[in-house]
Amino acid sequence: MSKPIIAVPIGDPAGVGPEITAKALVSDEVKSCANVVVVGDAKIMEKAIGISKVDLKINRIKAVSEADFTDGVMNLIDLDNVDLAQFAYGKVNGMCGKAAFAYIEKCIDIANKREADAVATTPINKESLRAGGIPFIGHTEIFGALTNTPDPLTMFETRGLRVFFLTRHLSLLQMLGQIKKDRIIDYVKRCTEALRRLGVTEGTMAVAGLNPHSGEHGLFGWDEVNEIAPAVEELKKQGYDVAGPVPADSVFHQAAIGRYNSVLSLYHDQGHIATKTLDFERTISVTNGMPILRTSVDHGTAFDIAGKGIVSAVSMIEAIVLAAKYAPFFRQ
Prior knowledge:
By secondary structure, this protein is α/β, with parallel strands linked by helices. The chain is built from twelve helices and twelve strands. The protein is 40% helix and 18% strand. Strands 3-4-2-1-5-12-11-6-7-10-8-9 form a twelve-stranded mixed beta sheet, with helices on both faces.
């Protein structure tokens, strides 16, 4: 089988996205598993190649079918939408926000048309998006809107540990209002289907506890007794292979050593801390539940080091490798 084609938008031009893209393309890991088509601005990528000191020749193409996947070639769909006279590294810039959105939009279009097998995204900046008049707060919302997916699922994966999120960008107080039996049942079902789409059909999903020691039967809180445990029991009756609530201080370790195939984290930091402590650079975000596959680095635009050539590309390499790993299941 031919290597999967991964579309890569370069992210915010003022951030590290262009540099990690250039560095990833010359890595042995990426070259061995994927063919990459980059969407961005040729002027910015020429700067990134020079800054990163990598040996790449840009091949400007208008369609994926024109790509030349010879070693040392960057196949670039050049949207030519950055004015260097208004450009500066490390600065919030509406022009760069609009450009970043256009790169993502083009990659989604390519993937929707099945001209690419997956999209691996680089960082964008929320303030630049806003300054550019883009009505989305981040990647997940953009992908959801442009693929007609009302509520995409976020899954983190690092070193075999997979973590889903029942809630994400909510305050802790708001999050507590979302810990409900019906919501947990819905998410476990959707997460199970997402895993099947990725080829993961064996193993038990664990639902993390919320309170210390999963509440100790009401001693430290009643959320487990009233909402989480009843959801797990109902799911088991319906035939789902699920366990919980499992105390959060142990469930992620147990999943990392193979006891569970995944964990449903109840809130943002619960799962983020677990995965990023295990391996910060190799924690990759996978957006599930959409008609296309999307992976992403899980770091920001790093404006403080953008344009300096010192950014690590490990996370970008891992994002492309993971996209290539799961892409064959989306071909079926």
